[in-house]
Design goal:
mainly beta, five-stranded mixed β-sheet, four-stranded antiparallel β-sheet, 21 strands, 0% helix
């Protein structure tokens, strides 16, 4: 364990584990900053260090993979927390009441977040003011998934950006001095509607062709009604896969909510255009 200047950190707490619910191994660094965990099973592990110097805790973490041989010369450089500025941007026609801006969550380490030893917690929330401005405190350097709140009625999530770059991936690196986090919502999305043969109270799923957008806010769901019809409104314009999961499937529709690639083999495709209706009639599948 080294400080920001590269000097060894003695008596730092080092934790090796697999997340909340799994037992963890704990060691303290020696006088020269070194540590060792013996007889560790093969697999993926998360290693972290927490240093209390009387002020804000210094902290760092990373995932490591053990395969058939020792892992040596691993470095951890705990750092102090910082704040990141953000803004919610919403299209609001003149004379229309501005809806309440949704909050934003930073989930540490791309959804594998359950770090019990992270000083500020694994999930950090930004609550915007009436103008959409927010600040997220106690952010430690690392990779995060950015999780916007539920889109206001009639709006769709258009983009997530840090500075001038898209921040859609599951592990967005956020470091001190990061540029503003901007989440944009727009009006005028399209609508996808149709019928579903043998829906049986199932659910229709709409997934963007761009797999980077297979995440909350961009993947949309709607139930079939009693007449086996569905409608999904306020959809971001673009190309989508659309499929229906039968209500009497042995596996619940949410069990493969985001990442079952094989499902798109059974999907139809639909083009969504701003302010227009698109039709897709489906036959429900069973998982």
């Amino acid at each position: 364990v080294l400080d920001v200047s590269g000097n060894p950190v003695p008596k730092a707490t080092v934790t090796l584990g697999k997340g909340i619910g799994s037992p963890a191994l704990i060691r303290n660094t020696r006088g020269d900053g070194t540590f060792e965990f013996e007889a560790v099973a093969e697999g993926e592990w998360r290693i972290s260090t927490n240093v209390d110097q009387g002020g804000p805790n210094l902290w760092a973490a990373r995932w490591v993979q053990l395969k058939a041989h020792d892992l040596e010369n691993l470095e951890l450089r705990p750092a102090a927390p910082f704040a990141i500025q953000g803004k919610i941007v919403m299209e609001v026609p003149e004379g229309v009441l501005v809806p309440k801006p949704p909050s934003v969550i930073l989930a540490f380490n791309a959804g594998a977040a359950g770090l019990a030893d992270k000083p500020a917690g694994a999930f950090l929330t930004g609550i915007p003011d009436a103008k959409g401005d927010f600040q997220i405190q106690n952010v430690y350097p690392g990779r995060y998934q950015i999780l916007p709140g539920v889109s206001p009625p009639q709006y769709y999530l258009d983009s997530i950006r840090i500075g001038g770059h898209d921040a859609l991936e599951s592990g967005v690196e956020i470091l001190p001095g990061a540029q503003q986090l901007t989440v944009a919502y727009k009006l005028g999305g399209g609508t996808v509607r149709g019928t579903v043969e043998k829906c049986a109270g199932g659910t229709v799923r709409l997934l963007p062709h761009d797999k980077a957008m297979w995440r909350r806010g961009f993947v949309l769901f709607a139930p079939c009604d009693s007449n086996d019809r569905y409608a999904i409104a306020a959809v971001r314009p673009g190309e989508y896969y659309v499929l229906a999961i039968a209500g009497d499937s042995p596996t619940p529709w949410y069990a493969t909510m985001w990442d079952d690639d094989g499902l798109v083999d059974n999907a139809s495709t639909v083009t969504v255009r701003a302010g227009e209706n698109s039709s897709a009639d489906l036959r429900a599948i069973k998982q």
